[in-house]
Design a protein that fits this description.
The chain is globular. The two termini are 28 Å apart. Helix content is 53%, strand content 11%. It has a four-stranded parallel β-sheet with strand order 1-2-3-4, sandwiched between helices. The protein is of the alpha/beta class. Helix 8 links the parallel strand 3 and strand 4.
Length: 227
């Protein structure tokens, strides 16, 4: 599923015109709920990647009764900031994001894709990842897409995994942000229904960096063979 503003999923003009007053996270959760309803399925598993993992968590909190297993890959559990810290970081990063939106974003990505382990793998794979991001931003209905994406992350609220009754699998790449990786490991040690797996040599998009390993972990988990 491509979230609104990703891939070929667009927002209608009425929502776009009022984008400053729209909670994109709620909108994405509602879109997912509508998709499940349209498909007519009562029991299912959900896999969320990166931002999609945040949406999957919010969806599970609101519509968890139909979820058998929840898989969260290369995502965050919660920002975990106090309101004042959240506001300050939002203020600073949102201004930075607006500044970036005025630049040719390819310049920034060209530098990052040559140096960052965050997008692991070969140089060719790094270029593929970043070219995909560039394409998404350039094709987006909003020139300041980064601003709204960052705002969603910073305003993301804590979800109590103890209240989620389904089995949960957390997957992350070895070169994912250190704080995110350590947070995931800590979560799995606290909750018995949460399992953690790290994929060696992978970055933020472990499903692309190490597809064979990623798919094997997911397959084993769905078949109840991951312990």
């Amino acid at each position: 599923m491509d979230l609104a503003l990703h891939g070929k999923s667009e927002l209608n003009q009425e929502v776009l015109n009022d984008i400053n007053n729209v909670d994109l996270m709620d909108l994405w959760v509602d879109d997912l709920a509508e998709l499940v309803e349209q498909l007519g399925i009562n029991k299912y598993s959900i896999l969320g990647l990166s931002l999609g993992g945040m949406v999957a968590q919010k969806y599970a909190e609101k519509h968890g009764e139909g979820i058998d297993k929840l898989i969260l890959a290369d995502t965050i559990y919660s920002v975990g900031l106090r309101k004042v810290e959240t506001f300050l970081k939002w203020l600073i990063l949102s201004r930075f994001a607006r500044f970036l939106s005025r630049l040719d974003i390819r310049i920034l990505f060209f530098f990052l894709k040559l140096t960052s382990k965050y997008f692991a793998g070969s140089l060719a794979m790094k270029i593929k990842h970043f070219d995909h991001i560039i394409s998404t931003i350039r094709k987006s209905q909003m020139r300041n897409y980064l601003y709204y994406a960052i705002r969603c992350v910073l305003l993301y609220k804590h979800i109590d995994f103890a209240r989620l009754g389904m089995s949960i699998l957390l997957i992350t790449g070895e070169h994912e942000y250190k704080l995110t990786r350590k947070h995931m490991q800590a979560i799995s040690s606290v909750y018995e229904h949460v399992t953690f797996r790290m994929i060696r040599g992978a970055g933020h998009v472990s499903n692309l960096d190490k597809p064979t390993e990623f798919n094997q972990i997911v397959s084993n988990y769905l078949q109840g063979r991951l312990f």
